[in-house]
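Lab notebook page, bench 4
Experiment: in silico fold of construct C2
Operator: M.H.
Input chain length: 820 residues
Purpose: comparison with the prior construct
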Amino acid sequence: MGTHEEQHVAGQRFDVADAAPLLIDSDGVVRSWTRDAQRLLAYSAAEVVGTGVGGLLATEDAERMPELAERCRRDGGWAGLLTVRRKGGRAVRVMVRITPAVEPGGAARWLVLLSDVAAGARGWDMSRTVLEQMVTGSPVGIAIVDVNLRCVWSNAALEQFGGGSARDRLGRRLAEIQPGIDSEAIEAQMRRVLETGRPVVGYEHVGQVRSAPHRETAHMMSFTRLEDDGGHPMGVYYTVVDITDKHRARQRLALLDRAGEHIGRTLDITRTAQELADVAVPELADFVAVDLLEWVLRGAERAPGPLGDQQRVSLRRAGQQSVNPGVPEAVVAIGEVATYLAGSPPVRSLATGVSWREERLDPLAKEWATDTAGDRSATFLDLGLHSVMIVPVRARGVTLGVTSFFRRGRQEPFDEDDLSLAEDLVSRAAVCVDNARRYTRERDAALVLQRSLLPHRLPEQDAVEVAACYRPADELTGLGGDWYDLIQLSGARVALVVGEVPGHGIDAAAAMGRLRTAVRTLAALDLPPEEVLAHLDDLVASTAREEGDEPGAAGLQAVGAGCVYVVYDPVDGQCTMAAAGHPAPAVVLPDGSVTFVDLPQGSPLGAGGPPFEAVELALAEGSVLALHTDGLLAREERDWAVDPDRDRLRLALARRAASLDLTCRAVVDALVPVRPHDDVALLMAHTRLLGADQVADWDLPGDPAIVAAARKEAARQLAEWGLDDLVFTTELVVSELVTNAIRHAEGPIRLRLIRERALICEVSDGGATAPHLRHPRTTDEGGRGLLLVSQFSQRWGTRFVPEGKVIWAEQSLTQASPDV
């Protein structure tokens, strides 16, 4: 054994009662043998006494005997480890201590104490003195109770929790020593240990001890049964460790985890504020109020200038919660204005962005917040509030409001750890509130954009009754690339348009807005459907080339867009349509049957391809045209002619509702989920025919003398319609248009009057040249005809038809004859 090991063994305490002693003389001969030695080595006294002790040792240790004898004489003893051999030859490692045992007047003797290392060395390092040092000097609180659970012993460390000294605790139950804890639950653990003998380890308890009567503390306790030599229970030995810091850290992490799960689940500002209040009560505070600035709730940006006037600052109560039902501590209801006096802690936190904490409030001081009129206020004593934290709601360097945390029932005031936790909670909520504010702003802007891109309401006219339904895939902004429109054309006709741009969101909406504007511009030229789509195709392709690879370019976004353009004439029920990469309209006939128009599918806009083809068909009065985007049938393939989902659309259209608007919504609800994968637009038009008494026409010869007869026929027809106030201007318009047709055109001439919401005068001829409005000089003898027509009409224009052209002019039915 090395010197270091010997010194270590020699430094240990050794209890004689737990060791096997034997006595040897100065020559190393065994002179006395004990029962403990016999139990350890299995030799009897007769076998050992009188023999050399070296015979009991292993060979290598027996060889060291002269050295050990010398060291004992020199040092007065020795301690260390040796290997001995039990009877039968098994080696046993033992701890050995040799001390002199000199008898007065007698020969020198040495007392040898042996302790088996394998047996745990109880006598070597767990002597009574060591045990006493361990329990009395331990920093862990230790106590022993008897079978009646009365204290019979405790160490000094237990006094840190209050309850008196060890002497004061004797004979007392736990409820008498610590009345602020749940003594019944703890004693139940003790009884269980007494009954079963199984120890309880790591039992956690939270309560108020005498050393901290206003603060909840957490302890970890362990219980072990004590038994006598017969195995009968004598009592319970238990330990107490203060784990308050660990407990509060766990609570804080759990609260932050719950905040991450429950705060900011929506993009609603007031709901987010309420979620913050709900999470903080009751774990952190007894009452929480969240007040935000007005511009935050509006989703606006902070306006420059002071927070309020010199006397007070107004915020809006966005959320509040209390441990008491009905939130009795609140003097302001959610949604109401909370007014704070200038200089009050909430206003200071709002202005500086720094939190504020007060452990003990002045009970007679007035609560800072009042309602708008200042009628509702109370003292902190009235509200029962005694401790407060004010934390500003700050996100991205901007203060959005303040959150007030109060304690009422719990006497423990807020400390620095509580303030740090409150700031973490509010910081998380502030980002969510600001995100909701930004979303509100962006959504409001998106809705304004949507309202500007889609028609506010479809124009009133007599050709069709219309209803439309639009459901975007992007529910956050409400924007998409689908659109619909109804455009009034000349001759009481209307154009029905439905289209879609690839993609969703604001980029698709911007591209859609450009296309819709282009369609309306082309419609104003009174072009046939196939020509409208041809011009639109050229526009998309050229715009895409000009914008190149610019990311998010509206022209690139429009490439691949689809559109169907339908023109309906209520005079004869004729309907002409063409499509560019878009599903054909469905037709619901007056008998309720549903068919689909056999419409040639042109290429999507901007993709290039063969010329667009138009289809013309006659619609019975009372038919319903259903124009829709492909999102209505929720299919990615664009082979609409063989789309099996048309059966679902047919069934949905066959169901009639009380009104066309309700039918339109019912169709979308039946075919489209609440959150569709693609934008959906549906436009339904219930066709009408103008009555025979609303249209009058005449075929005119190409003779200048017929002009007077045309004026007379027009005047007679207006008299029948009761439009005498329009006779003069109508005669002038008829005269000029018929005269121009006779002078400059060829082929048959036809005059037609239509009484709808306006009085429409049309003159058709076989010419292919459109007249131009001139501004004649004073000395010119002619050229004033179209100028007069433009002055006496609301609008006028020219449209080309296969047989030639039609020049038309509209007058309001409320228009009176001008003074001449």
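Observations: The first strand starts at residue 20 and ends at 25. Residues 121-125, 636-642, 778-783, 816-820 have pLDDT under 50 and may be disordered.
Next step: discuss at group meeting.
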